[in-house]
Q: What sequence folds into this?
């Protein structure tokens, strides 16, 4: 009963919901990016490495003197480039999307660490930058500009996907590439475009961590967030609106475990609380797996005239 | 330009592919080394020297290769059956956990009995860890890539919890580490006054055994058939689900054994940095070996050499040792392309 009261107290506080939106932001951006790739039929397991890359590149640009929004742009560009690499391997070359994605993650992560160490050889305490500040709005609305950007991007991706010819093309190459080709679309071009754009979004998710949530770059700072986004895409059944809902729901659980950790910290080991987000993701996958409607051409490479 | 499938892949092409991929990766990473301002040839020279330039360097490389052979085999057997086990890292830690629990004095057995017991228990722990995602895959259609990846994080948190709690070494000066395993659970050294231990022989033996199973038994035949085309295999009357679960136990078991061998052969106790990503590097090892159990040995020695050599190089030059991870990742991507070129040829038009 006492626990119930504690949880209720947490849930009605404005500070809690401010934290939820902040925690949700990288999940919103990452899930949106992965969703775009998968809607075009390409699984992008490079997400973890691309997020690390975005976190490092955006931070490094600002640390070298660029302003914050230039940092965001640099992150998106680096993400787009990594996306181009993944797309080249998986779309025209038709290589295994699983293995290529793992390769992109390994490359993105190691390259980020390499560059960071090269520029800052002996930084024992990580150097910091002046990050985005929350807007002066009441209650849970006091978020940094990148969170608002993420919310706007959900609407933009949803609009483009369902209301424009480009979006129709993306959905078509993910469902029935042969039919798309028959309509005169280039399956290769549409898929590459979607993967590049999606990867740029993933890099923004990483950049949020170093430019908004924290003010420094740490090793292992992405910490599995990319993999959770992949689970969230399935949970959201490949829809941007549901992706937003899923990310916020997930962030609410995460924020709740952080607060319960403070309340019950002495009784239970903190690792049990930290496990919850990962267990929750697996549970969500199990619950929706039966009725998940995968894009029908997901993970199937397309070669003209080959069946 | 388009790709045309080859009807026949010559053996020379299969053998040449990893060599070409590694050469391409070295050439690409030379750009990064040049960017640091270090002389490229001297840097690679130091890397080679650090990996194989002396008796000590060679034994260090082989020590590092030992767990990589096992995680490489774990990835190879799973990928063959199209079971995407990306969770070898977590399975390795579960094996190591079993090793410090059973080998830490709980069982009072002679070495010839204790060592096999600990190994079998570690393999069972690793196999059971992968069995979960495999069951979810065959029963509920849950993608095993994400579940195995997420399990890595859960296992590491579990290990962290135990190392700060039940398994914490009271003599460990407060560090989160387990008590050391008893002497009877230690693997004997292979070469005196080096770190090389008999775990290498276990890894080599398993590689040979898996090759025999692969080529000479019905098991191996079924595994390959299910990997190539599960529907056709099911139509031919093969127990597809059972093959999948069997593969999961085998793959997770190999990764778990890697954890046991690292604890009993090298470290003696368990910490949170037991594995510098052996589970993930195992994927690269398996791909470079084109999933061939014997090829895994060569690929593991190569990857181990890169890591050991890069450590030596970065001590002498201002090149961060993360260059090793970049080289390994680049080799994987180049290997994918090289593998494609052995199966397809480029045609104009």
A:
């Amino acid at each position: 009963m006492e626990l119930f009261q504690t949880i209720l107290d947490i849930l009605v506080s404005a500070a809690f919901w401010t934290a939820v939106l902040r925690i949700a932001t990288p999940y919103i951006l990452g899930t949106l990016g992965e969703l775009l790739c998968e809607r075009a039929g390409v699984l992008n397991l490079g997400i973890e490495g691309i997020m690390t890359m975005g976190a490092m590149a955006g931070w490094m640009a600002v640390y070298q003197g660029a302003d914050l929004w230039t940092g965001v742009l640099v992150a998106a560009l680096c993400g787009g480039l990594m996306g181009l690499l993944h797309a080249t391997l998986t779309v025209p070359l038709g290589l295994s999307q699983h293995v290529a994605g793992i390769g992109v993650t390994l490359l993105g992560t190691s390259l980020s660490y390499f560059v960071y160490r090269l520029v800052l050889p002996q930084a024992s305490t990580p150097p910091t930058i002046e990050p985005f500040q929350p807007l002066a709005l009441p209650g849970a609305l006091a978020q940094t500009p990148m969170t608002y950007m993420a919310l706007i991007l959900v609407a933009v991706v949803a609009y483009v996907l369902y209301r424009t010819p480009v979006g129709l093309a993306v959905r078509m190459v993910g469902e029935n590439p042969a039919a798309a080709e028959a309509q005169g679309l280039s399956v290769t071009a549409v898929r590459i475009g979607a993967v590049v754009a999606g990867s740029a979004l993933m890099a923004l998710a990483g950049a949020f961590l170093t430019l908004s949530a924290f003010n420094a770059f740490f090793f292992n700072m992405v910490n599995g967030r990319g993999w959770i986004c992949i689970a969230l895409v399935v949970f959201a059944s490949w829809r941007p609106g549901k992706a937003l809902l899923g990310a916020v729901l997930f962030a609410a659980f995460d924020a709740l475990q952080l607060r319960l950790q403070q309340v019950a910290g002495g009784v239970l080991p903190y690792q049990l609380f930290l496990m919850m987000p990962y267990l929750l993701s697996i549970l969500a996958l199990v619950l929706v797996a039966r009725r998940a409607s995968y894009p029908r051409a997901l993970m199937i490479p397309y070669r003209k005239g080959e069946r | 330009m388009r790709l045309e499938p080859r009807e026949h892949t010559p053996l020379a092409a299969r053998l040449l592919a990893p060599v070409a991929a590694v050469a391409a990766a070295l050439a690409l990473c030379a750009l990064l080394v040049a960017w640091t301002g270090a002389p490229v040839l001297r840097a690679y020279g130091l890397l080679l020297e650090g990996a194989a330039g002396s008796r000590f360097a060679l034994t260090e490389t082989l020590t590092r290769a030992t767990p990589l052979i096992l995680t490489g085999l774990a990835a190879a057997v799973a990928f063959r059956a199209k079971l995407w086990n990306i969770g070898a890292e977590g399975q390795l830690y579960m094996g190591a956990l079993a090793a410090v629990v059973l080998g830490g004095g709980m069982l009072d057995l002679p070495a010839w009995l204790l060592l096999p017991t600990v190994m079998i228990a570690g393999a069972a722990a690793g196999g059971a860890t992968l069995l979960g995602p495999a069951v979810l895959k065959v029963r509920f259609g849950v993608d095993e890539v994400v579940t195995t990846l997420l399990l890595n994080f859960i296992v590491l948190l579990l290990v962290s919890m135990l190392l700060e709690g039940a398994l914490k070494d009271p003599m460990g000066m407060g560090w989160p580490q387990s008590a050391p395993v008893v002497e009877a659970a230690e693997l004997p050294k292979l070469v005196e006054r080096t770190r090389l231990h008999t775990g290498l022989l276990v890894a080599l033996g398993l590689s040979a055994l898996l090759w025999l199973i692969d080529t000479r038994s019905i098991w191996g035949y079924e595994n390959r058939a299910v990997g190539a085309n599960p529907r056709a295999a099911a139509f031919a009357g093969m127990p597809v689900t059972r093959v999948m679960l069997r593969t999961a136990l085998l793959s997770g078991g190999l990764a778990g054994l890697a954890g046991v061998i690292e604890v009993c052969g090298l470290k003696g106790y368990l910490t949170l940095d037991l594995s510098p990503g052996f589970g993930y590097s195992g994927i690269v090892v398996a791909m470079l070996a084109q999933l061939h159990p014997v090829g895994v040995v060569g690929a593991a020695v190569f990857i181990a050499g890169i890591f050991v050599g890069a450590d030596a190089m970065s001590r002498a030059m201002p090149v961060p040792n993360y260059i090793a991870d970049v080289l390994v990742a680049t080799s994987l991507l180049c290997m994918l392309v090289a593998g494609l070129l052995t199966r397809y040829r480029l045609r104009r038009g």
